[in-house]
Amino acid sequence: MRRTSVRTLLLALVAVAAAGWLLLRGLEARGVYLPAVPWVVDAAILVLAGIVFRLGWAVRAYQKGSRPSLDGLRAARTLVLAKAASLAGALLGGWYVAQMLVVLPDLAIEPRRAHAVAAGVAALCSLVLTVIGLVVEKFCELPPPGDDSTGGGRGVVRPRAAEADEGRTGEDGSPAPA
Fold first, then answer.
1. Number of folded domains in the chain?
2. Locations of Basic and acidic residues compositional bias (predicted)?
3. Is the confidence at residue 177, as pLDDT, over 90?
């Protein structure tokens, strides 16, 4: 599985911000205004980022040899969750940037300024989620084959035929043919 590229995340953020800005401007032209962003959104995004980081830290500890065992399925799920978190953070960040852009011209009006601040904080929380997702993806990255400096060769599976032939030698001491 390939790592999530920062370029893809930036493209998603910009695309959602542009589409959201157009949508919100159209709604406001019809007299529909969005309510302010509640602080619970910020808390939920940060809690999600914390959970993703905690799960990724367990994988990192295993890779460094500090944790004796880790289920491979759990590590794979952590990787998928990290990828989803980085993309969700970029998409949410785009949505909240769009809200900030819509209210930007009206910052002199107190409720609009409060909306801009709340959307800005939510956009920053979304950025934290994106960065945590990328960091945890890095935690889940396997070391290159043959690199015994991290984990003592974990994950290297030797074929059974090679194990069986290991002890056999020919008459002259050379390995016997298979």
1. 1
2. 160-171
3. no
